[in-house]
Amino acid sequence: MKKPVNGSYLKGGFRAAFFLFRSRLEPTAVSRLRLGSCRISLRGGTGPRRARRPDINLKQLTYFMRVVEAGNMTAAAEQLNLAQPALGSQIRQLEKELSVALLVRHSRGVSPTEAGRLLCERTKAILRDVEEMRREVQTLGHVRKDSIVLGLSPSIMLLIGPDVLIEARKEMPGIFLSLSEERSVVLAEALEREQLDVILAYNIGPRPGFERKATLEEDFVFVTAPEKAGAEPTVSFAEALDSELVIGGERGLLRSIVDAEAQRLSLKVRLAFEVHSMNSMKSLIARGVGAGIMPYSLAAEELKRGTLVGRRIDRPAITRTLYAVLPAGRHAHAHDSDMLRFMEKLETKILEALGQFGRPLK
Asked: Are 230 and 243 a contacting pair, CB within 8 Å?
């Protein structure tokens, strides 16, 4: 007696015949089917396969640009409020999608490869176009408000926080204010790319495309743990450099100010730790393993709480200057007078928050 035919094999045979017939009608189709325990792959056509388009998004491009600008993965992660492993994963995914190395890792941080420099420049252009598109689309909304994007440094946000937005709504009811919080050097580059309308940033040098106004001066302070604080309210720069310092990397603005003044006075900077994160820097100082030299605003909260102690540096004084910066040749704005009043009130609030460590330059 013949053995009964296994139904699954019979069904598989019909399925195979159907796909074979369809593959003749669709020569480029690729079909996979299972006959019993066998796996068969059918591919018709002899033409080249289309290359897969890289899957890249604006977030990855923004992250990459920020890493290049910071020159350090840790500093970039802190600016982006992102865990460093997550940022590193995004950069590796971008390199994988483009099949090219974008960064060179070294002991001081990272540097872009030739491909990385090209991608960074193209990314700046892309983000500028996206910002312009966003503004154009927003102007078509039902509620037509003029939009202004204001860039502020993180230390200003530490001083006055959400008061900026509350004050803006009160002073400029006809303007929708958008805030961007970045390091001063990043704000200046974003203003050049026309991603921002006006910035309040520190130590912005003259540039052909900028109109700038020096608004106030802020003191640097010598910061220590409470148990290591001296009795005098001030300290000379030379005395501050006698201590081992917890300080940022060489490419940072604050480090460059300290190094330049030390070189001018033929003094040597003694390093305890080089740290690219401000929060980590203050944490190490609070533990008493080193001292710090920084603007008052960056340590204001800890100084008020008493977890750190700060003394003004004099003989000579170390300061930085806050500038209000606009693009040169900017067109007149319907709400320019309101914006001017708002900026003046903002500067007054910053001076109040700085107290004895800030002075107006008017």
From this structure: no
Q: Which is it for strands 175-181 and 234-236: parallel, antiparallel or unpaired?
A: unpaired
CA–CA dist 20, 64 (Å, integer): 48
* Cβ contacts of 69 within 8 Å, gap of 6 or more: 76, 185, 186, 189
Structural domains of the chain in order of their starting residue, each with its CATH number: 7-43 (no CATH), 57-144 (1.10.10.10), 216-320 (3.40.190.290)
Cβ neighbours of residue 158 closer than 8 Å, sequence gap 6 or more: 297, 298, 300, 301
Question: In which residue are the tokens 């919080």 written?
Answer: 181
Cβ proximity of 67 and 91 under 8 Å: yes
Question: What are 134-147's pLDDT values in tens digits?
Answer: 777 766 654 455 78
Q: What is the pLDDT of residue 246?
A: 97
Report pTM.
Answer: 0.67
* Bridge partners, 132 (sequence order): none
Helix (H) or strand (E) segment spanning residue 321: strand 319-327
For 275, the token pair is 């740290």
